[in-house]
């Protein structure tokens, strides 16, 4: 199919004053009647979107039925030819089959619960409609069903057995429509907003899951309070409902007043969820709640503007987590994820701008670039205009655009108007793909005490974009004297030329430069440092990100040198010794310092440096370095293992979670040399899932996990989310030569319900995360993935397309692997009836 293009945007010819939906639920034949009050705004036909599986039973204008000659249905569009008055009511009646719908899009069933997913273009599978975000309307919804709980957007109007009425007064785009019906139980609370309105809060789950919903509720209340305090944003309905379902294509969805969640991001208890799960629940609950203003009250004009709501809402949820937990640790975590996913995307065949200008299937553009780089771009804006400028711009954004379907131009304009700053050059961050490479050189003039920092920037070509003019790059630097004191606190340098220098004078001795503090821009920074320089920064930098980065850089340099046959140098091992002996720093920070760079990060670094990465060699050096660390620091590691048991009952807070993270990081290292004895002991004595899953992962990686794997399944076979974990932990941590054979065995396990997105992601995503396992030289990982993508594509194209991203880096590897990967991709592309989703992904990746 032909791509959609940003430049082709045209406003819809009609406005909708009100939508009335009447839905009679039935698993195989649900009936939907829609009445749309339309008014003509511009010339043009009345064209509606309609899903292929929707049976159209009736169409009428102002109550009089249309006959077959009055409309044409072709592909996914329905065009009405009849002459139409200026204002009229269009009525439609359709039948749909939720039980046959396996796509988790539109109206479908999850474990007997009717639920919906309409973003991006799912509403058309429910009723014929202009399924585009710039058509906003208030909705009134009536649901008929015998199921006990019947929910839709907005406020409840009337509830009677078998029937419920909802009214959403806030005009919304169709992608925010939602409906839920099922046998559900709520845990409930109330929230009094800053202007004193009382809001009923409910988290709806399946009967029996109530005792695992408390943390979600607690997170919601904290998020509501935070958005009032930090952004002045108040909730705007009488009720806020969250529903957890087991079959969901992503994490969650911000439907107006009725958020629908993957149960993985709602349900948690100490025995079944890890600290990481708790943290994700907190941040995703907050993220979806924050969308109420950034996404719902102000939405996107078209899907090219997706980052307008997603980049901003990610930025806001990152700020929230920083406030709830440790800002330093959160920043480092976010950078690790950004580099692993977004830098990888920017450097490969899927690179695209934060605001793409064309797409075939919009669901393929819910990417790390749109979300995470979109958030980084906002972080840079905030750095450039300052905290006050940012606050003024956001106030203006909410005031000026409330109720609008807005664009990135609108967004930048509020910053220009609020701060007086010209953002024409800054806009390139939205329109140009690729990660800039910034090279920094130092020139020290000892005689005059002047340090000159010279920067050059260059962005490699990306698909369809070769011209990359210089961007505005906020570069935070500080200067440290040889005794470790900070001689110049953080300065924000603004780089906006291809080459540019900055002078620092009046310096008594040559300082050490701490650069890209707090990761002030999403760039690759290149500079020449010795291991001793890195160790110095790792010991003395005041900026926690830059300090961690120096340690990371030291670890990366050590591993890269080992790939060339070197041995781990003394600086790195000594630095790790200081980390282990540090009793003052935040344990969560120390845990991050102990973690070795991932295999994927090393493969990226290798190919950036012009080498062909060898997955087996990368695996071997990581193993080797871990054992060297464990042998060198055995006593300290043992002390860490005993000193990091939190006192008191389990709590998912950052303090306890940090201790457990440090303990598990130490365990990962010692397991390399003790055959798994300590991991087995921690597994056996575990009182919470964080320790149990962490110990299990370590045992599997050591090839010593058989008993624990069996025990884990026995204990948790009835807890779906933990069974997912069981699949994932095995596939992700298996030794490379065992990974694909094991994945095949697991795919034949009776619990491998591959039509459930979480279960599929657990196994297939687990294997893709096993770097050397997935990239097996015989191509078995690629074949396994291709087989499963094809199988799942026939039932759930979004999941197939998403998981195909594992092929993204295929062109980095050696000829043998490349030939296998290419054959697997060609086999996918040659398959008849491929979904548009998977066809686009496989085509772009194959190149
Ligand atoms: N807006 C949804 C994502 C929708 C994905 C559609 N394929 C969740 C979120 O980002 O908050
Ligand atoms: Zn979002």
UniProtKB/TrEMBL annotation:
Please list the residue ranges annotated as the Peptidase M1 alanyl aminopeptidase C-terminal domain: 531-845
Q: Which family does it belong to?
A: Belongs to the peptidase M1 family.
Q: Which keywords does this chain's UniProt record carry? A: Aminopeptidase, Hydrolase, Metal-binding, Metalloprotease, Protease, Zinc
List the molecular function annotations (GO) for this entry.
alanyl aminopeptidase activity; metallopeptidase activity; zinc ion binding
Q: What is this protein called?
A: Aminopeptidase N
Q: Which EC number(s) does UniProt give?
A: 3.4.11.2
**Reactions the enzyme catalyzes:** Release of an N-terminal amino acid, Xaa-|-Yaa- from a peptide, amide or arylamide. Xaa is preferably Ala, but may be most amino acids including Pro (slow action). When a terminal hydrophobic residue is followed by a prolyl residue, the two may be released as an intact Xaa-Pro dipeptide
The record's section on CDD domains has:
M1_APN
Q: Which cofactor does it need?
A: Zn(2+)
Q: Where is the Peptidase M1 membrane alanine aminopeptidase domain?
A: 215-429
Q: What is the lineage of its organism?
A: Bacteria, Pseudomonadati, Pseudomonadota, Alphaproteobacteria, Rhodobacterales
**What domain of life is recorded for the organism?**
Bacteria
- Source organism per entry reads Paracoccus jeotgali
């Amino acid at each position: 199919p032909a791509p959609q293009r940003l430049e082709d945007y045209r406003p819809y010819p009609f406005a909708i004053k009100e939508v009335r939906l009447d839905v009679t639920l039935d698993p195989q034949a649900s009936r939907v009647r829609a009445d749309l009050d339309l008014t003509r705004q511009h010339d043009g036909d009345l064209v509606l979107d309609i899903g292929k599986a929707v049976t159209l039973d009736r169409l009428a204008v102002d109550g009089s039925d249309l006959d077959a000659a009055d409309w044409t249905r072709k592909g996914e569009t329905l065009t009405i030819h009849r002459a139409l008055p200026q204002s009229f009511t269009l009525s439609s009646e359709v039948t749909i089959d939720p039980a046959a719908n396996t796509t988790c899009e539109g109206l479908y069933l999850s474990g007997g619960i009717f639920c919906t997913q309409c973003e991006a273009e799912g509403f058309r599978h429910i009723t014929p409609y202009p399924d585009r975000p710039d058509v906003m309307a208030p909705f009134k919804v009536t649901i008929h069903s015998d199921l006990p709980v019947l929910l839709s957007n907005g406020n409840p109007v009337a509830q009677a057995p078998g029937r419920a009425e909802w009214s959403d007064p806030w005009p919304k785009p169709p992608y925010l429509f939602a409906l839920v019906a099922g046998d559900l139980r709520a845990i409930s609370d109330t929230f009094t907003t800053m202007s004193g309105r009382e809001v009923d809060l409910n988290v709806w789950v399946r009967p029996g899951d109530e005792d695992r919903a408390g943390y979600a509720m607690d997170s919601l209340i904290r998020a509501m309070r935070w958005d009032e305090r930090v952004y002045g944003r108040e909730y705007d309905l009488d009720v806020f409902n969250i529903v957890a379902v087991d079959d969901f294509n992503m994490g969650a969805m911000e439907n107006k007043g009725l958020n629908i969640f993957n149960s993985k991001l709602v349900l948690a208890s100490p025995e079944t969820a890890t600290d990481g799960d708790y943290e994700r629940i907190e941040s995703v609950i907050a993220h979806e709640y924050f969308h109420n203003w950034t996404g719902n009250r102000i939405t996107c004009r078209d899907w090219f503007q997706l980052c307008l709501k997603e980049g901003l809402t990610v930025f806001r949820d990152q700020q929230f987590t920083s406030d709830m937990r440790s800002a330093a640790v959160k920043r480092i975590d976010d950078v690790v994820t950004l580099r692993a996913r977004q830098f990888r995307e920017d450097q490969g065949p899927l690179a695209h701008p934060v605001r793409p200008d064309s797409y075939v299937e919009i669901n393929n553009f819910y990417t790390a670039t749109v979300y995470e780089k979109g958030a980084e771009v906002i972080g840079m804006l905030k750095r450039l205009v300052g905290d006050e400028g940012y606050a003024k711009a956001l106030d203006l954004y909410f005031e000026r655009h409330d109720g609008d379907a807005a664009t990135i131009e609108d967004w930048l304009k509020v910053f220009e108007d609020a701060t007086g700053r010209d953002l024409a050059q800054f806009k390139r961050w939205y329109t140009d793909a690729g990660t800039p490479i910034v090279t920094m050189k130092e020139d020290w003039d000892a005689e005059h005490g002047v340090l000159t920092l010279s920067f050059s920037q260059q962005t490699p070509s990306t698909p369809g974009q070769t011209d990359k003019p210089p961007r505005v790059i906020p570069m935070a630097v500080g200067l440290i004297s040889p005794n470790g004191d900070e001689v110049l606190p953080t300065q924000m340098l603004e780089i906006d030329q291809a080459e540019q220098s900055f002078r620092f004078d009046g310096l008594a001795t040559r300082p050490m430069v701490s650069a890209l503090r707090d990761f002030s821009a999403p760039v690759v920074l290149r500079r020449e440092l010795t291991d001793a320089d890195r160790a110095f920064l790792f010991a003395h930098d005041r900026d926690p990100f830059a300090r961690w980065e120096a340690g990371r850089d030291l670890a990366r340099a050590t591993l890269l040198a080992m790939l060339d046959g070197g041995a781990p140098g003394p600086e790195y091992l000594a630095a790790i010794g200081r980390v282990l002996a540090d009793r003052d720093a935040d344990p969560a920070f120390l845990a991050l310092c102990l973690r070795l760079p991932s295999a994927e990060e090393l493969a990226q670094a290798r190919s950036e440096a012009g080498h062909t990465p060898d997955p087996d060699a990368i695996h071997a050096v990581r193993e080797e370095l871990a054992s060297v660390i464990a042998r060198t620091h055995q006593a300290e590691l043992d002390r860490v293992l005993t000193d990091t048991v939190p006192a008191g009952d389990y709590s998912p807070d950052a303090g306890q979670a940090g201790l457990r993270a440090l303990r598990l990081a130490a365990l990962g290292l010692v397991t390399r040399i003790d055959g798994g004895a300590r991991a087995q002991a921690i597994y056996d004595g575990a009182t919470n899932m964080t320790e149990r899953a962490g110990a299990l992962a370590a045992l599997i990686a050591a090839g010593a996990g058989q008993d624990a794997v069996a025990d884990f399944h026995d204990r948790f076979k009835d807890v779906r989310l933990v069974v997912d974990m069981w699949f994932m932990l095995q596939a992700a941590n298996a030794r490379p030569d065992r990974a694909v054979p094991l994945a095949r065995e697991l795919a034949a396990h009776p619990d491998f319900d591959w039509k459930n997105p979480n279960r599929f992601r657990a196994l297939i995503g687990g294997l893709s995360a096993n770097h050397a396992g997935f990239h097996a030289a015989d191509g078995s990982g690629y074949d396994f993935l291709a087989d499963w993508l094809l199988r799942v594509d026939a039932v759930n194209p979004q999941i197939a397309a998403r998981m195909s991203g594992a092929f993204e880096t295929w062109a980095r590897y050696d000829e043998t692997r490349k030939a296998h990967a290419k054959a697997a991709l060609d086999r996918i592309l040659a398959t008849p009836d491929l979904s548009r989703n998977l066809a686009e992904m496989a085509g772009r990746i194959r190149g």
